[in-house]
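hey
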């Protein structure tokens, strides 16, 4: 009987500790974020630019150089958009289209990247500060790393192409 009581008390002590251990998914996401930040990305949990969504979602950002701002656009996965939005590539629609067309080589690379992204990648957004991927982190870093070269090339190709032609390195506000 004493052994049963001791065993029960040990279980009471150990069980909360087991609850505090990160799950396999939490460990994978922590590793993914850590490795992604080592490549220069910034990652934040924020509300995505989706209609009627108030849940915070991971936003992976490739920042444009301050003196070379990027264009403004929002590209949304079909599953998260209305049919009235203009289609761009298979499975993606413009919520906000850039004012100037993308260079042909960059557009081809962009469409190729869009076709490879996981289903939980819901939004790609660009503003004068950064190119942002909104996704639910379904993959580990080794798989995510296959997109890094394309996103970096896209960011570099879009840098210096702001929709506001009057925007210069003096007028860029890094706080917004």
């Amino acid at each position: 009987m004493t052994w049963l009581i001791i065993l029960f008390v040990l279980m009471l002590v150990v069980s909360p500790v087991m609850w505090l251990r990160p799950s396999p998914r939490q460990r994978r996401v922590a590793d993914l974020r850590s490795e992604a930040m080592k490549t220069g990305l910034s990652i934040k949990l924020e509300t995505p630019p989706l209609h009627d969504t108030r849940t915070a979602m991971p936003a992976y950002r490739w920042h444009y150089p301050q003196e070379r701002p990027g264009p403004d656009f929002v590209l949304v996965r079909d599953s998260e958009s209305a049919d009235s939005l203009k289609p761009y590539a298979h499975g993606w629609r413009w919520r906000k289209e850039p004012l100037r067309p993308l260079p042909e080589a960059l557009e081809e690379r962009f469409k190729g990247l869009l076709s490879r992204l996981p289903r939980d990648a819901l939004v790609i957004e660009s503003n004068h500060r950064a190119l942002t991927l909104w996704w639910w982190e379904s993959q580990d870093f080794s798989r995510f790393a296959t997109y890094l070269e394309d996103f970096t090339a896209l960011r570099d190709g879009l840098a210096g192409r702001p929709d506001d032609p009057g925007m210069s390195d003096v007028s860029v506000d890094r706080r917004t």
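The helical segments are 2-20, 24-38, 104-116, 141-158. Residues 24-158 form one domain.
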